[in-house]
């Protein structure tokens, strides 16, 4: 079976580009330059209207993946909101201080999703790449109710972590493993060789005339452009997968 192609997008326009380029689904978020944050209800609704299955990232803030009680409750509510707004899945994650999976939080996230949809797909995001042992961490995911896990194999890029990804595939049981992080169409064949069920990439390019300078809009604002989905990159990734 040909692995699925998932494109990370931040807008309905990006979802349309992904759809028309042959993507199987999109991961929807905002703040892609921060690693992705939870999209708004309206953004999920408009993306749902494009017709491509959308999995909404649920991450309430930038930074690490150790979450307190209030953050877990907030993300439970966000999970229910995005699914009621048309998302077909959610992308979640949480760690404990010792860098093991926070199974209590993950169980709550799965329960929140199932309270809205019995068929919602649930992906563990790249919090697993910050776990002390990513290969061991995939073991509990099936029992917790997860559909898949997105990983770079704990490396800066998925290609660099391909050896670990292959080991995660072996350890994952029925949980799908999806490779992502710094992926280009040229990397697709090497990642498919690890046995993954899907390849994830942002396929992004700077939006024309979107940069600004002079008056920062926040502490992390360097005046650089925002990104949009590149149709040529999506099509090239689709072609690379179809050639497998």
From TrEMBL:
HAMAP family registered for this protein in UniProt: CutC
InterPro entries attached to this UniProt entry: CutC-like, CutC-like_dom_sf
Recorded name of the encoding gene: cutC
UniProt family annotation: Belongs to the CutC family.
Key words, A-Z: Cytoplasm
Domain of life where this protein originates: Bacteria
Transmembrane segment boundaries: none
Protein name: PF03932 family protein CutC
Subcellular localization: Cytoplasm
A Pfam family that the UniProt record links to this protein: CutC
SUPFAM superfamilies listed in its UniProt record: CutC-like
């Amino acid at each position: 079976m040909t692995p699925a192609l998932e494109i990370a997008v931040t807008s309905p326009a990006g979802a349309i580009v992904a759809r028309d380029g042959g993507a199987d689904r999109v991961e929807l978020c905002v703040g892609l330059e921060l690693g992705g944050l939870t999209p708004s209800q309206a953004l999920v609704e408009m993306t749902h209207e494009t017709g491509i299955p959308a999995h909404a990232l649920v991450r309430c803030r930038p930074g690490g993946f150790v979450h307190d009680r209030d953050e877990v409750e907030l993300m439970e509510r966000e999970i229910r909101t995005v699914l009621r707004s048309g998302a077909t899945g959610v992308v979640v994650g949480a760690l404990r201080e010792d860098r093991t999976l926070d199974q209590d939080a993950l169980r709550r996230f799965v329960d929140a999703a199932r309270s809205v949809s019995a068929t919602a797909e649930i992906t563990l995001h790249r919090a697993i790449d910050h776990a002390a042992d990513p290969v061991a961490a995939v073991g509990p995911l099936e029992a917790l109710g997860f559909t898949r896990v997105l990983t770079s194999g704990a490396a800066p890029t998925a290609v660099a972590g391909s050896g670990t990804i292959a080991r995660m595939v072996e350890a994952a049981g029925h949980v799908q493993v999806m490779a992502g992080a710094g992926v280009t169409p040229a990397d697709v064949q090497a990642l498919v060789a690890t046995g993954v069920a899907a390849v994830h990439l942002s396929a992004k390019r700077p939006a024309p005339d979107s940069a600004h300078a002079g008056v920062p809009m926040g502490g992390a604002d360097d005046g650089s452009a925002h990104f949009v989905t590149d149709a040529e990159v999506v099509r090239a990734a689709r072609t690379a997968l179809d050639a497998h």
